[in-house]
Write a structure and sequence with these properties.
Order of helices and strands: HHHHH
Shape: globular
Helix content: over 70%
Strand content: under 5%
Number of strands: 0
Distance between the termini: 13 Å
Length: about 130
Amino acid sequence: MNRLGSILLNIAVALYLFANGVLGLTNRSGEFETMIRTIFGRGDLSGILIIVLSVIAIGAGIFLLLELFNISIKITDLIIFIFVIVWAVFIVIVDIINPLRNGITFLPYLVQLASHLLVFGTLITFCKKFS
């Protein structure tokens, strides 16, 4: 992979995850709220799960940035691997189940799906368990 492209993709996904994590912690509408509300609706459990996923996303974003600077922490690969699994579930819920329930507008759906697949692909690229 082109080194400059790899760096830019890593930074973009780290910022995306970090921003969505902050949105989830500040009770603003974000990706994780969409996922959790699709499954559980509203309630205390939903709020707790949104916070947990948001913290994990912030951690994954930070660990991706650390990986970019070759700062090696033993738990980094495990955290990224866990988030790969979380993101796969996220894609199934938000991009498959939710549109089946609520219908889709084709082009906005493609934009959403493409951004989610970009994050997924980047996470897989930087997870050593898949290489």
